Amino acid sequence: MIRIFDIDKWQEIFSALQKNKLRTFFTAFGVFWGIFMLVIMLGSGKGLHNAVNQGWGDMATNSMFMWTQQTTIPYKGFPQGRRYNFKNNDTQALLDNIPEIQYIAPKIRGWSREGNNNVVRGERTGAFTIEGNYPDFNLIDPVNILDGRYINNFDIQENRKVAVIGNRIREEMFTPEEKVIGEYLRIQGVYFQVVGVFESKKGDQRAEWENQVIHIPFTTLQKTYNYGDVVGWYSITSKEDYPVSLVEQKAKEILKARHNIAPEDNRAIGSFNVEEEYMKMRRLFSGINGLIWIVGIGTLLAGIIGVSNIMLIIVKERTKEIGIQRAIGATPASIISQVIIESVVLTAIAGYVGLVLGVGVIELVDFFLERSNGANEMFTNPEVDFYMAMRALVILVISGIFAGFIPARRAVSIKPIDALRDE
Q1: pLDDT digit string (tens) for 33-63?
Q2: What dihedral angle (degrees, nearest 10) is formed by the CA atoms of 221, 148, 118, 161?
Q3: Is 358 within 8 Å of 40 (Cβ atoms)?
C-alpha cells in the first residue's frame, strides 16, 4: 500500500501532472469552474434570501392581520356593500372563543384635522402617521427600542398621553444634542410625552415608512380622535403547534356572526396570513437552492469527467512504467492508490482555488454593496456559510476519488507482461 507521506511518491505525482502542463491546466479548469460557479450561485441565492428576510424584519411568522371591508352579499335584511367596524368587545370575544390565540393586538390609525402637518413642537412641524397600539403589537411586529421604552399596559388602562416615536421623527423634531425622553409633542392639538424612540427592523422602503410613525396607546388614540370603541384592524399570532390559518378561520367565523355578515361572504373581512406567505417564500428558496446545487454539481461533474478522462490518458502513457512497478513487486492496491491520489490532488487544488476565489468574489461584492449603499429589498449581504464550504470540500474529495477510480482499475487490469511489451 502506498504511504501518504512518502516524499518520493509525491514527487512522482507532481512530476506526472507537470509533464503536460497545458493539458493539466485545462483539465483542472473544469473542476475550478464548477466549484467557482457553485459558490457564486449559492452566495447570490443567499443574498436574495437575506433581502427578503430583511424585508420581514422580526415579524412573527405565525401571525396574521384582519381588517374590515364592504360586504358583498345581502344578509338578514342588510344590503350588499354595507360598511361596518370591528369593536372593542370583539377583542374579548375572540380571546374567549379561540384558545389557540397567543397574542392579539387591536390597532387603529389617526387622521389629520390640520392638513399634513399633524405634529408640532415649538417652531417645528411635521406630517407623520399616528397609530394606536397595544403592548403586544411589539411582540408580533417588533421594533428596536433605541431609547426609553415601548407602550405598556398601564398606558392602556390609564389612557396615558405618551408617545413612542420613530427615529426619523427624532431627527426632524429634535436637534442632535437635545434630550428626547420626557419632552412633549403636540399631536392633533393634544400634548403627548415622548417615552421611547424606536427604529424599524425591516429593510429599505418599509423601514423608511415605519421610522416616521408615532405609536400611542390604543385607548388614548380612540379618545383623542373620538373613535368611540372602533377597532381599525387586528394583529394576531397563534400558539405553538397551531397553524395561524386555524385562528384566521375561527376569527372570521366569529366576527361574521357578530356583525351579521353572510358566512359565505369571503370578501367582507380582509386578511393577510404571514405564515402562508412565509412558507411560500421558504418553498421558493428551497427550490432555488435545489436548482443551484443541481446546476453547480452538474457543472462540477463535467469537470470531474474531464479529470477522469485525463487520468485514463496518463495511465495509457504510463503503461510500461506501471508494468515495471508490477514486475518488481508493486501491489494492485498500491497502483490504485497512486492513481487515485493523483486524481484527488488535481481536483483538490483546482477546486480549492475555485472555492477561495468564489468566496473572495462574494465578499468583494458584499463589501462594495455596503460601501455604496447598494443593498436593497432584492439583494443584500451575499455570503457563503462555513457549512456550505465544508460540503463543497467533501464533494471535491469524493469527486477526486471517483475521477481516479476508473483509470486506477484500468491500470491494474493490464498484465505486467503485456505492459512491458507496450510501445
Answers
A1: 878 888 888 888 777 777 766 656 677 889 9
A2: 40
A3: yes
